[in-house]
Write a structure and sequence with these properties.
Layout (H helix, E strand, L loop, with lengths): L4 E6 L3 H12 L1 H8 L3 E7 L15 E3 L2 H5 L6 E4 L6 H12 L3 E4 L2 H18 L3 E2 L10 H8 L5 E7 L2 H13 L3 H10 L8 H4 L2 H15 L9 E2 L7 H9 L2 E12 L2 E12 L11 E8 L3 E8 L3 H17 L29 E10 L5 H11 L4 E7 L10 E7 L2 E2 H12 L9 E5 L6
Parallel strand pairs: 1-2, 1-4, 2-3, 4-5, 5-6, 8-10, 10-17
Antiparallel strand pairs: 7-9, 7-11, 9-10, 11-12, 13-15, 13-16, 13-17, 14-15
The protein binds NADP nicotinamide-adenine-dinucleotide phosphate (NAP) and L-homoserine.
């Protein structure tokens, strides 16, 4: 049997501790399938005294991940600290600069510095593996980067944040408040260290940016993604969506259009009878639409210690099985210096259906005025209803819900702005885009 692969793990939180546990429990099976043992020789975290439920005896401890990355005893540096800057960034750069292979689950880091890191890895002949960075345990990076080579992608979209999907599911199915659901997601280890990254949509944007690069061959452009999180979604929206035959999901969507690539992250209504609408809780789903294969939907656990550690483990095993001098898979699907400049399609040109919820004063002519403002902007309506779960109280504000046929974002914004100027709106209008899976 070949020499053991010696790994150093920085970060012993939800993912890191699960990884250590699995590597210890599956030591023999891993050695057989990889043809060599995988040995944890060193670790790093902030608090040496914290009980992590794993045995770290005989493993060297480093307070600073940078020192771990500089350690001569390791062959692979596993970064499970998190964050686009600071200790994570510095240690990954240092490890790659030494020619060490790196495995990371850090989508924030890759979304910000992925192209530079890929160039560095390729220059040094090191592997930079990051399966866990997108959609947790779903092997979507390998699918797009390797298995679907040669396919030309038209759209890549999905539920890529377990925390948000967990919150939306619990709100709908158990009637819990947003805050209660988020607390539970944090307790279960799904949320980011700062959960604003989850609920404001940034985490989905980071993952989408990575997938866009793999699918479309363009440079990572996380800052150019249209972004809306789920903090604005109320239980009323969830119920109204269900009444109209939809479910609300936070989707990340990347689509090739004539004017460039459209990348957007926002709460989205998907038809209730579509597969993606049935994806509940922490589960993620990624749909890939391409010319040769057609449509592929990958569904699986999107967050949590074991699911994420499973993907990290796969990356480590790939390194254990790799042979020195063998041709390497380019980090971002094609050599980093051959990535194309990102060409952004304007969000104003997005075309699709829209759900619009308006709370209006109970005045004669409001309904007609709303319909007129829509018509003036060339928007064709699929439905317009006055909706009330409780008996209508004369004079109390009323809810009007509109669903449009496919129309331009710019037209919807113009129509909503002119409605705002009419003086009968109470509060802000709610606008949710509708996305249709190919088969639905
Ligand atoms: P976590 O539970 O917050 O763990 C972070 C670990 O990093 C902790 O062990 C912490 O040390 C250590 N750490 C933080 N700053 C450090 C520093 N300056 N120096 C040394 N150690 C430091 O995070 P996690 O949920 O395991 O996530 C880790 C990474 O995986 C992140 O990039 C995250 O986005 C990604 N990820 C997470 C999931 C998930 O479901 N949780 C899924 C996919 C990807 P202490 O323990 O001593 O505080
Ligand atoms: N916070 C992330 C989520 C972890 O909830 O999906 C997995 O990337």
């Amino acid at each position: 049997m070949a020499d053991a692969l010696r790994i150093g793990i920085a970060g012993l939180g939800t993912v890191g501790a699960s990884l250590v546990r699995i590597l210890q429990q599956r030591r023999n099976e891993l050695a057989i399938s990889c043809g060599r043992a995988i040995q944890i020789v060193a670790v790093s975290a902030r608090d040496r005294n914290k009980d992590r439920g794993v045995d770290l005896s005989g493993v060297e401890w480093f307070a600073d991940p940078l020192d771990l990355a500089a350690n001569a005893q390791i062959d692979v540096f596993v970064e499970l600290v998190g964050g686009a800057e600071g200790a994570a960034e510095a240690s990954v750069r240092a490890a790659l600069a030494r020619g060490l292979h790196v495995v990371t689950a850090n989508k924030a880091l890759l979304a910000k510095h992925g192209v530079e890191l890929a160039k560095l890895a390729e220059e040094k002949g090191a592997l930079l593996n990051y399966e866990a960075a997108v959609a947790g345990g779903i092997p979507v990076i390998k699918a797009v980067r390797e298995s679907l080579t040669g396919n030309s992608f038209s759209r890549v979209y999905g539920i890529m944040n377990g925390t948000c999907n967990y919150i939306l599911t619990k709100m709908e199915k158990e009637g819990l408040s947003f805050a209660e659901c988020l607390r539970e997601a944090q307790r279960l280890g799904y949320a980011e260290a700062d959960p604003a990254f989850d609920i404001e949509g940034n985490d989905t944007a980071h993952k989408l940016a990575i997938l866009t690069t793999l699918a479309f061959g363009s440079e990572i452009a996380a800052d150019d993604i249209y972004l809306e999180g789920i903090t604005n979604i109320s239980i009323d929206d969830i119920h109204a969506a269900a009444d109209l035959g939809y479910r609300i999901k936070l989707l990340g969507v990347a689509q090739r259009t004539e004017s460039g690539i459209e990348q957007r992250v926002h709460p989205t209504m998907v038809p209730l009878d579509s597969v993606i609408a049935q994806v509940d809780g922490v589960t993620n789903a990624v749909a890939l639409e391409s010319d040769i294969l057609g449509e592929l939907l990958m569904v699986g656990p999107g967050a949590g210690g074991n699911a994420t550690a499973s993907a990290v483990l796969g990356d480590i095993a790939d390194i254990a099985k790799s042979r020195p001098g063998a041709q390497q898979v380019p980090v971002l699907g094609r050599p980093a210096h051959l990535l194309e400049p990102y060409r952004q399609a304007a969000m104003q040109s997005h075309e699709g259906g829209y759900f619009i919820r308006l709370t209006v004063l109970d005045r004669t002519g409001v309904f007609a005025s709303v319909a007129t403002r829509m018509a003036e902007n060339g928007i064709s309506l699929e439905s317009i209803v006055q909706r009330s779960k409780t008996p209508v109280v004369s004079g109390a504000p009323q809810t009007i819900i509109l669903v449009t046929h496919a129309t331009m974002e710019a037209s919807v914004r113009k129509a909503v702005n002119s409605i705002k100027g009419e003086g009968y709106l109470v509060g802000e209008p709610q606008v949710i885009r509708i996305e249709r899976p190919k088969a639905a």
